[in-house]
Write a structure and sequence with these properties.
Two copies of one chain form a homodimer.
Chain A lengths: L1 E5 L3 H11 L9 E6 L11 E2 L2 H5 L4 E6 L7 H10 L3 E4 L2 H18 L3 E2 L10 H9 L4 E7 L2 H13 L3 H10 L8 H4 L2 H15 L1 E2 L15 H9 L2 E11 L4 E11 L11 E8 L3 E8 L3 H17 L9 E2 L8 E7 L18 E2 L3 E2 H9 L7 E5 L6
Helix pairs in contact in A: 1-11, 3-4, 4-9, 6-7
Chain lengths: 384, 384
């Protein structure tokens, strides 16, 4: 099966290496084209800087998008689907933004659009959800879907250091980008939650409708308070079926030490699904990086090689049912002071709210005229 | 697709319920026969006590063995394969004992023999290994594959109680059988390690060749020593590629608190694989029970429905390369006293051995003329 690879950066390079040094079933795959930018040297005879070369070759069956960013990745993927090619991408931001448009084309052309590498890197998370769904209704999912922030939080927890210092260290080690906004403000996880909800619930929530709180304002004092009360702070993305529909959110969580997620350290990812007959199943591994993400991309290509005719599920666009879930929330930092009326009387030594609908908390936060406080959900352990 | 169900106990009953109350893709499955014992009432019109009814119906494509035990399960499965039917079973003891014979028939008849429910219950563990193997060499696996012993050890750890008391409690709650030998002596895990090695390495090690040490002799003092040194005791089954071949073992392990396995409590199962491009990936969930095991059985049936022609891998029978791995071992109890010459000078406050080949330890243990001591491997954390 002939494959065109768009981009030969970290992930694209890994995909080329795995397929070229073919093991086992990958032996039937062949990269025939590699799209590069005009200004780059053609160091591989398969390289071209003209996308028309790829779209014009009728033998190319799969286009692997490994460019990143919104454009031209989005246009290239759309054109590939329109031309009747299967597409594999791990570009979570682009996929979350344009999913309904791209899915409609894939369904019309009867081709597959797969993106295992977009959520949880090498962890077979979307594959696990697809498998569960063959039998079960999925009730909810939640997990750690960003390695950069998990690395920062794990180090703050172990070493008692400040956020800024641990962010710098993550940047020096290459675990965080020069502009870390998408990671530390929860926007990267938001895209992954959007795509996980598509897979789990056949429902598309616009990324902008998913509230995203990150870890920019977390302090060593917050970590210490959590530790003293049997919690570890993790950045958690989640999705739930509610009575009315689907709710999804991204928010730091004070995770009980009895919850496995509390013990997922370093830059690992970990995600759990809860479903009818299987109960809770959890999947843990390298959430990013060259080899794990390339592995996931090649798994998608093999999936297409095995079952090219499998139709893409229909997906309904839905509102985010933010009034359908309740929580207890931990708030800290100066701006939180104006929210003292929400105080939970059972936990007097910090600003922890009474149990309240997420929608109500978000409304109160939206009215703050200053910088946001650090906001986190407190895991309620009496419910198991 | 018509399915014959052999046995309607816990797992068989769960399979009938999932398929009869068909959701999604299971809608194309139909149970046409249910084999029961002659002395049982025929409470379902599909019930028969004559296996010839099933073998004689050419429309039956899949036989699900849910009888348990070695016979007649083994004979029924062999006959089903010989008659050209696909077989699904979660009977780990029977499958581990007869795997080469059954595989040879399945390969000759070009049918599939699947057994996801045999290892890790509902956790898609064997499916994860099969998926990994499409791209990677699997280097090793290790995990908690028995819920009964994990329940006992977790409770001993949390409550500081004795083994005998926690075993009784597990029996009262239905987590342990009246005769708990297979669970607590590691024989159940041995069958699962055998079948996991088949899947991971395409190598069959006879179950009798896999050393199995259980938790029968563990004491509250052992748990306390482990806790004081940053370890949690878990019963771990594992398999490794060695320089010369494959090594597999079942042994309690003093797992570092930095290892996720240490935090897998209650009756959960958790297994990790280490492979070339993905690194370590971990799968956690309900390792047994009606619904999770039935879920795994139905997943296997769906797998057959989707890809009935997929050939079974060739598997080589191999010796267990017990001299290919080394470890540091914790020993306790009176019989351990005669092994004092193995003492690790770095850990003087317990009988912990120097680093030594597993084969050498086993030879020394085989020469003890009294009851075996409690034997556990100490996780070496300096290697990560």
């Amino acid at each position: 099966m002939k494959i065109a690879l768009l981009g030969i950066g970290t992930v694209g390079g890994g995909v080329r290496q795995i397929i070229d040094q073919a093991l086992g079933m990958t032996g039937r795959l062949q990269i025939s084209h590699i799209l590069i930018r005009p200004e780059h040297d053609k160091t591989d005879p398969r390289m071209t800087d003209d996308y028309a070369d790829i779209l014009g070759d009728p033998e190319v069956e799969v286009v692997v998008e490994a460019i990143g960013g919104l454009e031209p990745a989005h246009t290239y993927v759309r054109q590939a689907l329109e031309s009747g090619r299967h597409v594999v991408s791990s570009n979570k931001k682009m996929l979350a933004a344009y999913y309904p448009e791209l899915l409609a084309i894939a369904r019309q052309k009867n081709v597959r659009l797969l993106y295992e590498g977009s959520c949880g890197g090498g962890i077979p998370w979307l594959a696990a959800l697809a498998r569960l769904k063959r039998i079960d209704h999925i009730q909810s999912f939640q997990g750690i879907l960003n390695g950069t922030t998990n690395y920062i939080l794990s180090n703050m927890t172990e070493k008692g250091r400040d956020f800024a210092e641990m962010l710098s260290q993550a940047q020096e080690l290459g675990y965080a980008e020069a502009d870390p906004t998408d990671d530390i403000d929860g926007l990267d996880v938001r895209s992954k939650v959007c795509l996980s909800a598509v897979q789990a619930f056949d429902a598309y929530l616009k990324p902008e409708s998913i509230p995203a709180y990150g870890i920019r304002h977390v302090t060593a004092q917050d970590i210490a308070w959590a530790g003293a009360h049997g919690y570890t702070i993790k950045l958690v993305g989640s999705g739930y079926r509610t009575e009315q529909g689907i709710c999804a959110q991204v928010m730091p969580m004070l995770v009980s030490d009895r919850n496995l997620l509390a013990h997922v350290g370093a830059n690992l990812n970990a995600v759990s699904a809860s479903s009818d007959t299987l109960g809770v199943s959890t999947y843990i591994g390298q959430g990013a990086g060259r080899n794990p993400t390339a592995h996931a991309v090649v798994q998608d290509i093999l999936e297409i090689a095995e079952q090219p005719q499998l139709p893409m599920n229909e997906v309904q666009t839905a509102e985010n049912d933010l009034s359908g879930v309740q929580g207890v929330y931990y708030l800290s930092g100066r701006p939180a002071e104006t929210l003292r009326d929400l105080q939970n009387p059972d936990i007097p030594d910090a600003l922890v709210t009474r149990k309240m609908p997420l929608a109500e908390l978000l409304e109160r936060l939206s009215k703050l005229d200053s910088q946001l406080p650090f906001v986190a959900q407190l895991e309620e352990t009496d419910k198991g």
